[in-house]
C-alpha cells in the first residue's frame, strides 16, 4: 500500500516532464535526420539532439553550415530541451528534499503532540494482539501511543490508522518509553510476542512511572510469576483467555452473544469503570442524577467491598469506583460531572 502511494506520487510529479523530454529527443532525432540527409545515421541524429539538450557543446555531428533552418531548429531544440531538463532536475531535487523535510517535520510535530499527552496509554508491540488493543482504545475514545520496532508491522497498522501517534523503537528500551511519554501515562500494554521482552517492558515502565498500570501478555507459564514480581498489575494469557471463551460459547451462548453484540454496537457500548475523584462531596446514587438512557449502573466498588445493583440511597464518596454500562460520550460526561 505504501509502495503504491509512493509510485503514484512519482508518476504525478515526473510523468509529464519525462514524456516531454523523450518527445523533444524524438523530434530532434527525426529533424536532424531530415536535415542531414541519407549520409547521417539515426544514432548520429540522436547524439546531436542529446549534446544540444545537455549543453555538452561538442562539434556538430550533423553539418549545419549550409542550413540556416537547421541552426534555427537547433536553437529551438536547445531552448526547449534545456528548459524541460532544468524543470525535471529541479522537480527531482524538490521531491527528495520535500520527502525528507516533511518526514522530519511530521516526526517533530508528532513528538510535540506525544509530550503534551496526559493520562494516555502506551502500546508496546502492534502485532495481532496490539492491533486489537489499539482498536478498542480508538473505539472508546482513549488516547494512546504505539511503540513498534518492526517497520513492516508499523506500516500495516498506519494503513488502518494513519493519524495514530507512534514511535519506531525497541519498546524494551527506557528511551522508547520516555519518548512515548511514560512519565504522564495512565498505563502500559506490554503485548509483544516475546515474554522476556514483556518482562523487561514491565520492569522499565514501573521504574520510570510507578503509578502507571501495566498489563502484560504472557504465553509461557514459567514467566507469569516473574512478570508479576517486577510489577505487572495484570497478566493475560491469550491461550487461557481463548480457552475460556471457547468454553463459554458452549455453556453460556446467550451471554457470549450479548457481549459480542455489545462490542459490535454502533454506539460502542462498554462496561466501564469511573473513579470518583478526591474532593468530591459525598452523595448518594440518586444525587448523581444519572440519565438511565445513557447509563446502566451495575455496581460500586467502595474500599474493599462491592455493592451490586446499588439502591438510590447508597452513599458514595472519593475513592469509590462506579461500574457502568455506557458509551464513550456517556463515560466522559459522567467523569466531567464528577470532577465539577
Output the keywords.
3 domains, Rossmann fold, alpha/beta, 16% strand, 340 residues, 11 helices, elongated, Helix Hairpins, Alpha-Beta Plaits
Task: Set down the secondary structure blueprint.
Layout: H1 2-36, H2 42-53, H3 68-115, E1 120-124, H4 128-139, E2 144-148, H5 151-160, E3 165-168, H6 174-179, E4 185-190, H7 195-208, E5 213-217, H8 221-229, E6 234-236, H9 238-251, H10 253-264, E7 270-275, E8 283-284, E9 295-302, E10 305-308, E11 315-316, E12 321-326, H11 328-339
Parallel strand pairs: 1-2, 1-4, 2-3, 4-5, 5-6
Antiparallel strand pairs: 7-12, 8-11, 9-10, 9-12
Can you put this structure into words, describing what you see?
The chain folds into three domains: 2-112, Helix Hairpins, CATH 1.10.287.70; 118-243, Rossmann fold, CATH 3.40.50; 267-339, Regulator of K+ conductance, C-terminal domain (Alpha-Beta Plaits, 2-Layer Sandwich), CATH 3.30.70. It is built from eleven helices and twelve strands. The protein has helices at residues 2-36, 42-53, 68-115, 128-139, 151-160, 174-179, 195-208, 221-229, 238-251, 253-264, 328-339; strands at residues 120-124, 144-148, 165-168, 185-190, 213-217, 234-236, 270-275, 283-284, 295-302, 305-308, 315-316, 321-326. Helix 1 runs antiparallel to helix 3 and helix 9 crosses helix 10 (253-264). The mean pLDDT is 86.
Short description:
The protein has 11 helices and 12 strands. It has helices at 2-36, 42-53, 68-115, 128-139, 151-160, 174-179, 195-208, 221-229, 238-251, 253-264, 328-339, and strands spanning 120-124, 144-148, 165-168, 185-190, 213-217, 234-236, 270-275, 283-284, 295-302, 305-308, 315-316, 321-326.
Amino acid at each position: 500500500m505504501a509502495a503504491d502511494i509512493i509510485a503514484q506520487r512519482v508518476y504525478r510529479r515526473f510523468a509529464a516532464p519525462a514524456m516531454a523530454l523523450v518527445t523533444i529527443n524524438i523530434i530532434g532525432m527525426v529533424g536532424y535526420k531530415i536535415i542531414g540527409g541519407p549520409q547521417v545515421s539515426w544514432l548520429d541524429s540522436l547524439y546531436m539532439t542529446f549534446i544540444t539538450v545537455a549543453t555538452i557543446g561538442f562539434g556538430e555531428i550533423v553539418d549545419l553550415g549550409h542550413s540556416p533552418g537547421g541552426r534555427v531548429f537547433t536553437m529551438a531544440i536547445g531552448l526547449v530541451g534545456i528548459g524541460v531538463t532544468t524543470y525535471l532536475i529541479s522537480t527531482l531535487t524538490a521531491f527528495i528534499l520535500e520527502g525528507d523535510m516533511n518526514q522530519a517535520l511530521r516526526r517533530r510535530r508528532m513528538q510535540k503532540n506525544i509530550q503534551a499527552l496526559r493520562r494516555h496509554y502506551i502500546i508496546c508491540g502492534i502485532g495481532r494482539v496490539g492491533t486489537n488493543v489499539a482498536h478498542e482504545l480508538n473505539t472508546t475514545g482513549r488516547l494512546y501511543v504505539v511503540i513498534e520496532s518492526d517497520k513492516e508491522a508499523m506500516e500495516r497498522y498506519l494503513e488502518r490508522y494513519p493519524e495514530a501517534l507512534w514511535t519506531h523503537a525497541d519498546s524494551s528500551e527506557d528511551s522508547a518509553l520516555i519518548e512515548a511519554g511514560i512519565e504522564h501515562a495512565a498505563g502500559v500494554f506490554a503485548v509483544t510476542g516475546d515474554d522476556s521482552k514483556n518482562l523487561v517492558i514491565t520492569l522499565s515502565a514501573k521504574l520510570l512511572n510507578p503509578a502507571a498500570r501495566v498489563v502484560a501478555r504472557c504465553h509461557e507459564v514459567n514467566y507469569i510469576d516473574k512478570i508479576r514480581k517486577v510489577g505487572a498489575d495484570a497478566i493475560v494469557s491469550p491461550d487461557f483467555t481463548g480457552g475460556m471463551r471457547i468454553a463459554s460459547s458452549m455453556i453460556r451462548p446467550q451471554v457470549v452473544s450479548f457481549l459480542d453484540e455489545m462490542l459490535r454496537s454502533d454506539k460502542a457500548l462498554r462496561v466501564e469503570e469511573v473513579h470518583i475523584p478526591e474532593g468530591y462531596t459525598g452523595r448518594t446514587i440518586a444525587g448523581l442524577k444519572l440519565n438511565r438512557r445513557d447509563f446502566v449502573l451495575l455496581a460500586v466498588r467502595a474500599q474493599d467491598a462491592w455493592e451490586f445493583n446499588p439502591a438510590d440511597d447508597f452513599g458514595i464518596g472519593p475513592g469509590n469506583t462506579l461500574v457502568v454500562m455506557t458509551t464513550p460520550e456517556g463515560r466522559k460526561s459522567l467523569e466531567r460531572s464528577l470532577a465539577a
